Amino acid sequence: MALAVRMRVPCRALLCAGAQLRGAALGRPEWAAGGGDGARRFASLRVLVEPGAEGRVAVMKLKNPPVNSLSLDFLTEFLISLEKLENDKAFRGVVITSDCPNVFSAGLDLREMYGRNPGHYAEYWKAVQELWLRLYLSNLVLVAAINGSCPAGGCLMALTSDVRILSDSPKSVIGLNETLLGIVAPFWFKDTLVNTIGHRASERALQLGLLFPPAEALQVGLVDHVVPEDQVQSMALSVMAHWLAIPDHARQLTKAMMRKATADRLIKQREADIQNFVSFISRDSIQKSLQIYLEKLKQKKG
Ligand SMILES: CCCCC/C=C\C/C=C\C/C=C/C(=O)SCCNC(=O)CCNC(=O)[C@H](O)C(C)(C)COP(=O)(O)OP(=O)(O)OC[C@H]1O[C@@H](n2cnc3c(N)ncnc32)[C@H](O)[C@@H]1OP(=O)(O)O
After folding, report:
1. Best mutation site among 297, 299, 300 for ligand 1 pocket (most ligand atoms within 8 Å of CB)
2. Domain residues for 217?
3. HEC assignment per residue over the chain
4. Residues with catalytic function
């Protein structure tokens, strides 16, 4: 318990308060409770939280169409949902999945990193850091049910989970592809990958910006299971049951022991990391790369 308190992420309350203010300012309701068990089922515009069959597990569905990009509004809503679940002692595990067909998450929202001002970049990056810290250090068992494409920030999100299940579909590619956009994965993205697949495999994957198809993702250890698309959710719940058979306190302390040093690296230099990001992303050459990439995404359609 003492460890859990020590590991609380600084500024979380401030970030969430900011999110609620922003929601209120936009004149929309933040939360809508629904169903017979309204206290446990809640939704924001972009995140749907449903209790799993047994009640100890919640299913968080990302619904920021078309591609679940991690916009600032999405991040703030997600963080509020996660905090609610962390604070509700009834929940011990969360399955994170997508409500958008064929895409788990397209990663960071490129529109938040292109053509904005330094203040916006700083606010956005703080929210991205917060997402990673809150997920990576979560006391809950997290299972990522990856039912579609999972590049860059989407992959980072999945990597924070305790287990990853990937759908066996040609669209379900996963990896940190930042170099393909002409940008660089931050050190804590890299650390999370190294902790999962090891140094050599990470070096190759990061430099080449590899997006692994299911069989290769399984082989390199980026995901733990590959199953047909219609079995992703049931597999996630079955794996969850296995993890929930372990006493929480022992599992949580072990998870902290494995992850705390990695998280601390960022916690100790959060402000410097924000400044790094702002100056990197503001460079003309980086803005140009992002512009070209965004144009390519648009042209893909036409
Ligand atoms: C040395 C110091 C280092 C300091 C660190 C500094 C910098 C590093 C910073 C950040 C790291 C970055 C992390 C990221 O996550 S960047 C995002 C990377 N994401 C991608 O590359 C995915 C791009 N998207 C796709 O490949 C495809 O969209 C898809 C996910 C495979 C889905 O394909 P589908 O065919 O279904 O959809 P469309 O491609 O038609 O897209 C629909 C619609 O969505 C827009 N869109 C797609 N992805 C994004 C995105 N990430 N952000 C914003 N918008 C996105 C796309 O343009 C289409 O828009 P339209 O208006 O045309 O409908």
Report:
1. 297
2. 2-228+249-299
3. CHHHHHCCCCCHHHHHHHHHHHHHHCCCCCCEECCCCCCCCEECCCEEEEECCCCCEEEEEECCCCCCCECHHHHHHHHHHHHHHHHCCCCCEEEEEECCCCECCCCECHHHCCCCCHHHHHHHHHHHHHHHHHHHCCCCEEEEEECCEEEHHHHHHHHCCCEEEEECCCCCCEECCHHHHCCCCCHHHHHHHHHHHCHHHHHHHHHHCCCECHHHHHHHCCCCEEECHHHHHHHHHHHHHHHHCCCHHHHHHHHHHHHHHHHHHHHCCHHHHHHHHHHHHHCHHHHHHHHHHHHHHHHCCC
4. 108, 153, 177-178
> From the alpha carbon of 108, which atom of ligand 1 is closest?
15
Ligand 1 centroid from CA 38, angstroms: 34
Q: What percent of the chain has pLDDT over 90?
A: 82
**Residue 235 belongs to a domain:** no
Q: What are the beta bridge partners of residue 143?
A: 95, 163
**In CATH, what number is assigned to the domain containing residue 79?**
3.90.226.10
| Model confidence pLDDT, tens digit, residues 214-252 | 999 999 999 999 999 999 999 999 999 999 999 999 999
Expressed in angstroms and rounded, the spacing between residue 297 Cα and the centre of ligand 1 is: 8
Q: Is 174 exposed, middle or buried (0-12, 13-18, 19+ CB in 10 A)?
A: buried
Query: Which two tokens mark 302?
Result: 């036409």
Give the HSE-up count for residue 117: Cα atoms under 13 Å, Cβ half-sphere: 1
ipTM over 0.85: yes
70-89, pLDDT tens digit by residue? 999 999 999 999 999 999 99
Domain count, the chain: 1
Interval between CA 42 and ligand 1 midpoint (Å): 28
**Residue with the nearest Cα to atom 34 of ligand 1?**
67
